[in-house]
Amino acid sequence: MADTHAKMTQATPQEILIAILAGLLAPLLAIVLIVQLVLGIQKDHKPDTTSEAAQKATLARIAPVSQLAAADANAPKVEKSGQEVYEAVCAACHGSGALGAPKFEAKGDWTARLAQGYDTLVKHAIEGIRAMPPRGGAADLSDVEVARAVAYLGNSAGADFKAPEAAPAGAPAAAAASAAKPDPAKGKAVYDANCVACHGTGVAGAPKLGDKAAWGTRLDQGFDTLYSHALNGIRGMPAKGGNASLSEGDLANAVAYLVTEAGGKL
Ligand code: HEC
Ligand code: HEC
């Protein structure tokens, strides 16, 4: 009796090996399937827009749009529709949710944001907020184009925003001014109203008006770069000096005033 029992439980080394292999096979199969699934997802995955390189690539991809806009700056600018702007610029992040961007048509992503109201959302899209770059990184988009893209984006998530039809009154004149040579004489009033608070005293490390030492290496960047930094903000310098409603023409004049007061040339 004891003998048969011992025989029944006694497994040969081959039997043990088979049992171990069979036991390993199931988890192995599961691992292979998971790896295949992950590889499959990676293949379908939208391009990674979070890394610095990918962001640069995105900016490079949208650069032709800005260049095109710049090329026909002299021709009357045809404002792009919200959908066109969205597809050319905003979809890079808002299509996939890159960097935590609220996604197109994802109502849950937008509820609290929409509650801020259209004007605030447009302001945030123009000036940038947290990981959202000013104008989505396309500095040449007009305020109207950004506002239209915000309406397109918001409406996809259930809002009922009315996009601006055409440039608001005064904007054509501003556009003309930015195409014209910036005028430091006209910039003084703009400076006194918008920039003096920081650039008068050097608040937050702002280079002071007329302080040649503070402006020296900055002037070397050239007017266009300085203007672009003033438009989009840089470090302690807020976009448009914090006044989103400042026209680009007025801003260019104020930068010209700061530049010439520091001994720079236009
Ligand atoms: C490089 C990626 C990127 C691009 C390109 C981009 N966005 Fe964004 N956007 C973001 C991120 C990230 C957020 C979320 C920011 C936060 O709230 O922290 C955001 C938020 C927003 C918001 C909500 C702001 C708020 O107050 O909650 C609006 C509106 C918006 N984007 C509009 C646009 C428009 C219009 C464009 C195209 C012209 C655009 N974005 C292009 C990344 C991007
Ligand atoms: C809230 C304070 C503040 C206001 C208002 C402000 N600036 Fe600035 N600005 C700064 C600071 C701080 C810097 C230095 C940023 C840095 O280089 O770190 C700066 C830098 C600049 C630069 C140099 C950028 C560069 O590339 O070196 C220009 C040009 C400029 N501001 C223009 C303006 C104009 C034009 C206005 C008004 C329309 C204005 N700023 C309003 C704080 C301000």
Q: What does this entry look like structurally?
A:
The protein is an all-alpha fold and 266 residues long. The chain folds into two domains: 52-156, Cytochrome c-like domain (Cytochrome Bc1 Complex, Chain D, domain 2); 179-261, Cytochrome Bc1 Complex, Chain D, domain 2 (Orthogonal Bundle). It contains 13 helices and no strands. The protein has helices spanning 2-9, 13-44, 52-71, 82-94, 107-114, 118-127, 143-156, 171-179, 184-194, 196-199, 212-219, 223-232, 248-261. Helix 4 packs across helix 7 (143-156). The longest helix is centred in the first third of the chain and has 32 residues, at 13-44. The radius of gyration is 29 Å and the shape is elongated. It binds heme C (2 copies). One heme C binds at residues 55, 85, 89-90, 92-94, 98-102, 113, 116, 121, 124-125, 129-133, 135-137, 141, 146, 149-150, 153. One of its GO terms (molecular function) is electron transfer activity. It comes from Thiobacillus denitrificans (strain ATCC 25259 / T1). It holds the Pfam family Cytochrome_CBB3. This is Probable cytochrome c5.
